[in-house]
């Protein structure tokens, strides 16, 4: 039985909408918000809210997360510890004790580091920055405490908030409904007594790159010692429409100064009330160095050396954004020989095993206080490392672009790869494994590749 055309289109659209937030390299990655009701109050409850980032290689960078929801009834926020609502809203009906926020759709942000201790709780006050779970599990969590009024005072009368949203820091996350789960069990400091929350509900949020951005946010280029061809990022790989770019550092400073003055002059009085947070978000809008690809970040993979039992690749990450320092960046590469990594120079490394014993994906990130910050565009706007891999005699070859990765992710977003037919291939006269005699010419090719990349 053949399906009508309209029905087929509907099925395809439904399938794509479900799969759009699925990441095959991190199938279980999500952000889970857990609400634990710790005590009842005369008109509501006090809850501890924990935000756990279970994504292996996607973190939340500055200016940090923003969590929002819609109250089920007419609840208010009496007070908060470890976070704050961005707007108080209309609290005019309260005569004496004024709530922290009376908005029916509050938006909550983390506090900045250095706030007084009486405003802090564990895992708060990092400016909304949350590490990826695969990079640093201890920093992949955020928390705050909230006192809710005009709400239910028992498990049966409490109505769960709905329409949860998460900005991290921009769009891309879709949150499901809150679901009541078994109450969280806590262990006391002496490990001799267990207590539990009076009520617990979870909210799960998943990320979709298609919702976050119309275009990719990074691109990949290739080069090798056995071929003079340098495969650049595709033209307009990250989109060229309506993008302002700067050709020099002097141009970038002039453009940033001009945009700052324009923003201040045109700021609406209502928007001004949002304060420094929105100003920070506006300043985070990219100002790119003028390139043919117009991407904020480029990853270059260079096949550098060939030994008898090993081969070596050089990875360079370049930042073309004059407004962004990528602190705590992550880089993920998928390649069949990454299961035989022998040594990684100047990056930290962890394998990403998504399916059983398949170990073809590697997570790279900077060493703490050394190169964990990818500086903004300019002379210091790059980080680089080399990866040494043992050859697998049964599968190893340099032919047909085998030495180049299948996928590259930067900060959790998949980068635009060059088309497969453009990869630097082995010369037809060369043997399957490049001979050691080619190493002399590799140095010349590497220098040429580096010089061309500087002006790309």
Write up what this structure looks like:
The structure is a single chain. The protein is of the alpha+beta class and 456 residues long. Strands 1, 2, 4, 7, 9, 10 and 13 form a seven-stranded antiparallel β-sheet that branches. Strands 15-14-18-19-26-22 form a six-stranded mixed β-sheet, with helices on one face. Mean pLDDT is 85; it is low at 1-19, 261-282, 430-445 and 447-452. A hairpin with a 3-residue loop joins strand 18 (297-306) and strand 19 (310-319). The protein has helices at 5-19, 209-212, 249-266, 269-272, 276-283, 439-455, and strands at 31-41, 44-53, 66-70, 76-81, 83-85, 107-110, 141-149, 162-167, 173-175, 179-181, 185-187, 194-196, 199-207, 218-224, 227-231, 245-246, 288-289, 297-306, 310-319, 326-327, 330-334, 341-345, 348-351, 361-365, 373-374, 382-390, 407-410, 413-414.
Keywords:
single chain, 456 residues, alpha+beta, seven-stranded antiparallel β-sheet, six-stranded mixed β-sheet, 33% strand
In short:
The protein is an alpha+beta fold. It contains 6 helices and 28 strands.
Shape: elongated
Number of strands: 28
| Tally of helical segments | 6
Summed over residues and divided by their number, the pLDDT gives a mean of 85
Low-confidence stretches: 1-19, 261-282, 430-445, 447-452
Largest sheet: 7 strands, antiparallel
Helical fraction: 10-25%
Our measurement of the CA-to-CA distance between the termini, rounded to an integer number of angstroms, reads 54 Å
Structural class label: alpha+beta
Sheet-strand content, in percent, reads 25-35%
The whole-angstrom Rg is: 26 Å
């Amino acid at each position: 039985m053949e399906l009508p055309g309209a029905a087929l289109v509907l099925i395809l659209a439904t399938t794509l909408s479900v799969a759009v937030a699925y990441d095959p390299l991190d199938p279980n990655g999500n952000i889970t918000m857990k609400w634990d009701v710790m005590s009842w109050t005369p008109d509501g409850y006090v809850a501890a809210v924990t935000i756990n980032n279970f994504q292996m290689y996607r973190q939340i960078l500055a200016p940090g997360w923003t969590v929002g929801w819609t109250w089920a009834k007419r609840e208010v926020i009496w007070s908060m510890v470890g976070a704050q609502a961005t707007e108080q809203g209309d609290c005019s009906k309260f005569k004496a004790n004024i709530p922290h926020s009376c908005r029916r759709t509050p938006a909550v942000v983390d506090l900045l580091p250095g706030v007084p201790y009486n405003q802090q709780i564990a895992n708060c006050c990092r400016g909304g920055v949350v590490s990826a779970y695969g990079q640093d599990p201890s920093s992949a969590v955020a928390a705050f405490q909230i006192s809710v009024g005009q709400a239910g005072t028992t498990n049966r009368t409490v109505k769960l908030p709905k329409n949860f949203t998460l900005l991290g820091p921009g769009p891309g996350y879709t949150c499901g409904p809150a679901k009541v789960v078994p109450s969280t069990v806590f262990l006391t400091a002496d490990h001799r007594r267990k207590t539990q929350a009076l009520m617990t509900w979870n909210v799960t949020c998943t990320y979709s790159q298609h919702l976050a951005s119309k275009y990719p946010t990074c691109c990949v280029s290739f080069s090798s010692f056995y071929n003079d061809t340098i495969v650049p990022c595709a033209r307009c790989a990250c989109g060229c429409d309506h993008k302002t770019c700067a050709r020099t550092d002097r141009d970038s400073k002039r453009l940033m100064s001009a945009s700052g003055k324009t923003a201040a002059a045109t700021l609406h009085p209502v928007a001004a009330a949002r304060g420094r947070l929105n100003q920070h978000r506006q300043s985070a809008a990219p100002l790119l160095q003028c390139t043919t690809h117009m991407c904020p970040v480029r990853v270059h993979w260079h096949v550098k050396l060939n030994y008898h039992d090993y081969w070596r690749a050089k990875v360079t990450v370049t930042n073309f954004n004059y407004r962004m320092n990528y602190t705590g960046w992550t880089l993920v590469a998928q390649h069949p020989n990454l299961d035989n990594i022998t040594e990684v120079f100047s990056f930290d490394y962890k394998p990403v095993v998504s399916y059983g014993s398949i170990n073809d994906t590697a997570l790279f990130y900077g060493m703490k206080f050394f190169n964990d910050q990818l500086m903004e565009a300019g002379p210091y706007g790059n980080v680089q490392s080399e990866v040494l891999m043992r050859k697998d005699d049964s599968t190893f070859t340099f032919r047909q672009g085998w030495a180049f990765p299948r996928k590259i992710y930067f900060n959790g977003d998949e980068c635009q790869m060059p088309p497969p037919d453009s990869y630097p291939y082995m010369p037809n006269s060369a043997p399957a494994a490049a001979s050691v005699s080619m190493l002399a010419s590799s140095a010349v090719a590497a220098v040429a590749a580096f010089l061309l990349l500087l002006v790309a």
